[in-house]
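A reminder before we start the practical. When you read a complex entry, don't treat the lines as separate problems. The point of joint prediction is that each chain is placed relative to the others, so the output describes one connected object in space. Small molecules and nucleic acid strands, if listed, are placed in the same frame. In the example below there are two entries. Take a minute to note the order of the lines before looking further.
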Amino acid sequence: MRYAPAILVGRLVRFAARLRKPGGGSAVPGLIVNTIAPGYLKRTLSGFPQGLVVVSGSSGKSTTTKMLVAILRAHGIDVFTNPSTANISQGLTSALLERADWRGRVPGDVAVLEMDEGHGAVVMQGVDARVVTLMNVMVDQIDRFHDSEMVAGMLARIAERAHEAVVVNADDAYLERISGRMSPDVAVRRFGVSEAVLEAAPRGLGYTETTSARLAAGEGVRVESVDGVTAVLADGETSVAIRLPARGTHYAVDAAAAYATARAVLGDAFVATTAADALSEIPAVFGRGERVRVRGQDVEFVLVQNPASYQLNVDSIDPDTEQILFAMGSDVRDPSYFWPTDASALGRVAIVSGSKAHEAALMLAYDGVEIDRVEPDLPRALDDFLSSPPPTAGVKTIVFTADSMRRTRSHLGLTGAE
Amino acid sequence: MSGVTLTIVSLLPRLQNTNGDAQNAAVLAARATWAGLDARVVDVDRRDALPERVDAIVLGSGSDSSLEATRGTLLTMHDELRTWGTEGVPILAVGTGWELLSWGIELADGSAVEGLGVLPGRAVPRADRVTGDLVVSSPRFGTLVGFENHARDYVGAEGSPLGRVRAGSGNGRDAGQEGVVMGSVIGTHLHGPVLAKNPSFADALLGIASERARLEYRPGERTAIVDGYAAAAREAQLSAAGVALSASGPRA
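Here is the predicted structure of the whole assembly.
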């Protein structure tokens, strides 16, 4: 009962926000509830019968969270999860309010939350998690996180909230150091890639510091092989073949993380084939290697969010791809930190666009990429790119940053999945 | 072709490349190649990896946790760094790489890291980290446009700064100045691909390196196309930083 008044106020605010902006979500109801009932988030997160599972790290947490939720649901578990846009305190409270009854209780056996590494350490204060999964440490968003040590420190604080297990990427040296400092009654479980998978990755895995040795067979969930959109995961004696939501070793690593976490959560109830089926049914993620039909032709979308995903995604574009549009938007305040990447594999780009088109063109040119045209006006670039004759090889491919992705989606009338 | 390969050393690119500063070595090599010269970049992480011939050096910025490791390795090349500096080999040092070439670094906790003393001045703590656009009018290299991201100011460069700050913080402490220059050794807060963004700066360094190597550097055809992207990117950043274009052209 103690939260009923705050819940009522939050509901009313949400209703008002919807009147103003139909269909839109808002962090405002969460902000208000957090203000008038500061204990609500903490108590609710700690109140799920089978506990709370948190996924954090620099990259791959959204995909891993989706995969983990799919595996748990396939095992018949009722899961509460947050939309990936709602992973900071107010958004999280708002997401809980969406599902809460009038007393503020949220149905579900277990909560699986994607946690921003910056805000997670604050949100998680006083909250106990059963399992914490850490993906990786990558240098990202330099205006906000100044270096890898800072990111690792924030992840360590999130990991400290785990009372049953932490699941860590064994290939990430920062995370291995964090796992070495865990209390002895917290189990450490691992996922990683095989030597062969690392060797096949042209530029490694993109972590700030990769460990020198790979996970030995039986030490955790290991990505044995990756071939296009299929991969094989090995877990001791068990081995399963899965389909990935898109090409790319990082998706196989995400799947291994989700698999290892689900096994930690479910214990003896975990069924490998059920997990493999659930993973294989994950739909392609929008903007991350998704192929869509637009204006009568196939177009592939590739989202770049940080230097590591940029390198991985650029490398995973089919080398035969003939027509590429590359758009960099205002979300990239300072493109400097993209410069250590190498986009020479693109070969030729038909149009460079977005509000940072000239910065992007400068970077691509020094990578040796041929540029046919620079057109900062994204709608015009999209129209011209899509109306040009279809390529003789590959499909038209659009590489974009998050801001350009949103503008592209809105210009082409594509809505829905994010 | 004279058979000489211009050799650009990228110093400690593993430790000192937080913001892509090490890519300035690749920028110099690319522009030299476009000009029809032979050029290569040599990554040097240890003294014994130093090539025989050194025509220009780029030392980028790292994080504070790499200060000691970088300093230790730079000390093994102390004699070479002094010799290059004296002989006029262009050295571009950015951020913490620059700070380590100075007299020293005062840290926020009161401790200090002794520098190599190749450049005058020292780094001192500032209250908050500064990040954002940095525009500098340099009498030698024209209007320099880029970004800064640092937690320390720099004092003692007043006699020979790189230039005057038009937007941003630069050396701080109300000096209105940015960077330090000693012959052809240049220290700056301008991080990232500053030589790509400022072609006149790159060409000035290449001019010095070519002249020392008895080569003639004349920018190539591709250079003009790529510098067109740089010009448009500079224009956009200058207008975002509120610096009027009419008054910001290079000075003689």
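Discuss with your neighbour: The two ends of chain A are 36 Å apart (CA to CA). What might explain this?
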